[in-house]
Amino acid sequence: MSLSPLLAQARPWRLRISLGQGRLTLYGGLAIVFGWCLLALCAPWVAPFDPLQQNAELRLAAPSLAHPFGTDNFGRDILSRVIWGARIDLQMALIGVIFPFLLGTSLGALAGYIGGWLDNACMRLVDIVLAFPFLVLMLAIMAILGPGLSSFYIAMALVGWVSYARLIRSQILVLKHSDFALAARSLGFGHRRILFGHLLPNALFGSVVFCMSDAVLVLLNGAAVSYLGLGVQPPTAEWGTMVAEGQSFITSAWWICTFPGLAVVTLAMGFSLLADGVADRLGDRS
Q1: Residue range of the domain that includes 103
Q2: Is 13 exposed, middle or buried (0-12, 13-18, 19+ CB in 10 A)?
Q3: Which tens digits make up the pLDDT trace of 127-166?
Q4: What's the pTM value of the predicted model, to 2 decimals?
Q5: Of 242, 235, 236, which Cα lies nearest the Cα of 257?
Q6: Residue 253 included in any domain
Q7: What CATH number does the domain containing 208 carry?
Q8: What are the backbone angles phi and psi of residue 228, rounded to the nearest 5°?
Q9: Exposed/middle/buried for 270, CB within 10 Å: 0-12, 13-18, 19+?
Q10: Are 271 and 216 in contact (CB under 8 A)?
Q11: pLDDT digits (tens, 9 = 90+) for 181-216
Q12: Assigned domain for 21 exists
């Protein structure tokens, strides 16, 4: 008996399973990220306590019905601080991606399309930035500028743009010799219209997917610099700062570090699933 008909019937089934997994990944990531965004927006109404309110009588209280995540060494409610901290960490993840994306995309597109000395200068600058460890260069810039969110965003823009520039440049180098680009030139279209109207929209696929994956790295870097004391400063509720404040009590009050750490992991997983889901969906359409 021939197996060809059976294999022919099996292929659509495997395809449906693959597409279903892609949708499941996308919707799962969307649900996690949207849930955190909703929680952050509704923090004034959802958080049971003021995140900065101290209570000496409740210092290092274990998780209970009144305080599900326990309290820290100042008697502040951990659950309320985690909810309010979502605002800062989501802001860092989003803004920390937007500026490198815009800067890297612009420079990479111009370097790939124009070529020549501009391309050489841009790529040598990329090589210089990549020669330094990412986090070390970020910390050096933030140490010069001073601690705070503004310094974090500037450092991310100055260091993180190189990945987007390389991605866009490689796509533009291929697309500018494609048939539709040659047709646009033959019709007399200007360079600006060809680059930004035809080439760049077709080159953004990889950068958009990487942008969502990069949000995970930005989130972790934001928590890391706050943990090291160069990011968000106490007493502001931020997950990395909360982990740093609770490290001295890890053996006696594990909940101070555990719940902010789980929040970072959960949001990072949401961005990662969202990036995989978007890549699957855009890949199906291409």
Answers
A1: 75-285
A2: exposed
A3: 999 888 888 899 999 989 988 889 999 999 999 999 999 9
A4: 0.82
A5: 242
A6: yes
A7: 1.10.3720.10
A8: -85, -5
A9: buried
A10: yes
A11: 888 888 888 888 888 888 888 888 888 888 888 888
A12: no
